[in-house]
Write a structure and sequence with these properties.
Helices cover 22% and strands 36% of the residues. It has three helices and 13 strands. The strands form four sheets. It has a four-stranded antiparallel sheet, covered by helices on one side. It has a three-stranded antiparallel sheet with strand order 1-6-5. Strands 2-3-4 form a three-stranded antiparallel sheet, with helices on one face.
Length: 180
């Protein structure tokens, strides 16, 4: 069932992996991440990590693939990092940042100010004639996705005009307006 779990995770140069019991710690140039892997056992051989499950039970098969994917994301995160870009579509929608504070003007009576975690680097791009873009980057894939989803939840794109906060490259399902 778990073909993903059987694939070994390759460790690039500059990344170290420590396995202590059922806790795996990955260190790289961008940061350090750790994950508890439950019943699954991890073995580091040279420049690969392989995961083994204790039984062929359904729960162990599911965890096998899950933890392999999480470890692969950790290794990629500490070596390359992850980025998500959000686009603000709408008249008067603006974004600006000062350090770890993100200030969003989304048509509400007050601006929304978000304090971001120190692990996340935020950048706002505002060019004349184009929609503002928020660029989030970090070594933790889960954290970047969570923060991006939180920002998007303030103004989800609506289906008629497409106004709102959307991911760059996201295809929106558009609806026709009232027919006369």
């Amino acid at each position: 069932m778990s073909r993903i779990g059987k694939n070994p995770v390759t460790i690039p140069s500059g990344v170290t992996v420590d396995v202590k019991g059922n806790n795996v710690t990955v260190k790289g140039k961008l940061g350090e991440l750790s994950q508890e892997i439950g019943d699954i056992s991890a073995v580091v051989e040279g420049d690969t990590i392989t995961l083994d499950r204790p039984s062929e039970g359904k729960a162990h098969k599911a965890q096998h693939g899950l933890y392999r994917a999480l470890l692969a994301n950790m290794v990629q995160g500490v070596s390359e990092g992850f980025t998500k870009e959000l686009e603000l579509v709408g008249v008067g929608y603006r974004a600006s940042n000062q350090g770890q504070k993100l200030d969003l003007a989304l048509g509400f009576s007050h601006n929304i100010v978000i304090d971001l975690a120190p692990e996340i680097k935020v950048e706002t791009i505002s060019e004349k004639g184009k929609n503002p873009i928020i660029k989030l980057s970090s070594f933790d894939k889960q954290l970047v996705g969570e923060v991006a989803a939180k920002i998007r939840s303030f103004r989800k794109p609506e289906p008629y005009k497409g106004k709102g906060i959307k991911f760059v490259g996201e295809e929106l399902r558009r609806k026709a307006g009232k027919s006369a």
